[in-house]
UniProtKB/TrEMBL annotation:
<keyword id="KW-0145">Chemotaxis</keyword>
<dbReference type="InterPro" id="IPR028051">
    <property type="entry name" value="CheX-like_dom"/>
</dbReference>
<dbReference type="InterPro" id="IPR028976">
    <property type="entry name" value="CheC-like_sf"/>
</dbReference>
<protein>
    <submittedName>
        <fullName>Chemotaxis protein CheX</fullName>
    </submittedName>
</protein>
<dbReference type="GO" id="GO:0006935">
    <property type="term" value="P:chemotaxis"/>
</dbReference>
<dbReference type="Pfam" id="PF13690">
    <property type="entry name" value="CheX"/>
</dbReference>
<feature type="domain" description="Chemotaxis phosphatase CheX-like">
    <location>
        <begin position="43"/>
        <end position="129"/>
    </location>
</feature>
């Protein structure tokens, strides 16, 4: 892996850590250690420009619901926590958007200007995604009181 690719992946990891911390998840850990996740939610955001590819966040309903409920408590907001509704979906799209947007800031600092696409969300059971033809990819597992998220990044640098 090239030095610029390693630096780019570090930008993503730094962004994940910063956004989780700013969202009140101060004890979140980021690991490369693979964990078994029953993916029920998948959010994707594309990257265009000098760096292009995808960031995908996957998780299960329980972790997603816990995350939104803890986040709502952290900001003092009351929500209907009985089901995974539109507010939960919007929250997940927004947190993925924030991680991706922050990544573009850090990437720009190393000379990799890029833009992001709007998030897309898929909700179902046993969701599986596959991508090919990318030079660099990395999977991060984020753990905290809510459960586990899987963030997959695949990029090409031109």
């Amino acid at each position: 892996m090239s030095k610029i690719s390693e630096e780019a992946l570090e930008c993503f990891k730094k962004s994940i850590s910063e956004i989780m911390n700013e969202s009140g998840f101060h004890n979140a850990t980021i690991s490369l250690e693979e964990r078994d996740i029953e993916s029920s939610i998948l959010i994707t955001i594309g990257f265009t420009g000098r760096l292009h590819g995808y960031l995908m966040l996957q998780t299960d309903f329980e972790s997603a619901t816990n995350f939104v409920n803890i986040l709502a408590d952290y900001i003092g907001m009351e929500i209907d926590s009985s089901s995974f509704g539109d507010f939960h979906k919007s929250t997940f799209c927004e947190i993925t958007n924030q991680i991706s947007g922050r990544s573009t800031i850090h990437l720009s600092s190393i000379g990799l200007d890029s833009n992001i696409t709007p998030p897309s969300i898929i909700v179902g059971s046993s969701i599986y995604s596959s991508v090919s033809d990318y030079d660099v990819s990395q999977t991060y597992y984020i753990n905290d009181a809510f459960g586990t998220f899987k963030i997959f990044i695949c990029i090409n640098i031109t």
